[in-house]
């Protein structure tokens, strides 16, 4: 699968695909191993990028997803896409070049930093002093 666009799902014909999941870190690790070969238990499919242009029509949003000269482009259809819609489309694919795999993580998987507590506890002690 070198130099290809990877998706998780079904491919009923050469001109149709149904996406069933989004690639994650574990998928990237599996795909990057030289000894990995897709089997029936994995539903990885690839679209070779050796062609000059790969265009995918997305029915739900009536938009197009293009891969051309190592760049990705999303062309809106009749209605404008929200930023979330566009992000959702890009997160469906991974790009594999030789043994390197790149993918976009969904927004909700961002690293969570330490947050401040709203009402931090204050401990105090009092001692009566004799004068």
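^ structure tokens above, recovered residues below v
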């Amino acid at each position: 699968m070198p130099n290809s666009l990877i998706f998780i799902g079904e491919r009923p014909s050469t001109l149709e695909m149904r996406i069933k999941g989004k690639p994650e870190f574990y998928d990237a690790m599996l795909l990057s191993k030289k000894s990995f070969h897709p089997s029936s238990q994995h539903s990885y499919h690839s679209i070779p990028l050796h062609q000059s242009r790969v265009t995918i029509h997305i029915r739900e949003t009536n938009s197009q997803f293009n891969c051309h000269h190592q760049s990705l482009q999303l062309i809106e259809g009749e209605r404008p896409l929200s930023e979330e819609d566009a992000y959702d489309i890009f997160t469906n694919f991974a790009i594999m070049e030789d043994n390197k795999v790149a993918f976009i993580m969904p927004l909700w998987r961002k690293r969570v930093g330490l947050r401040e507590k709203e009402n931090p506890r204050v401990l105090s002690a009092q001692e009566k002093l004799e004068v």
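The chain is about 10% helix and 35% strand.
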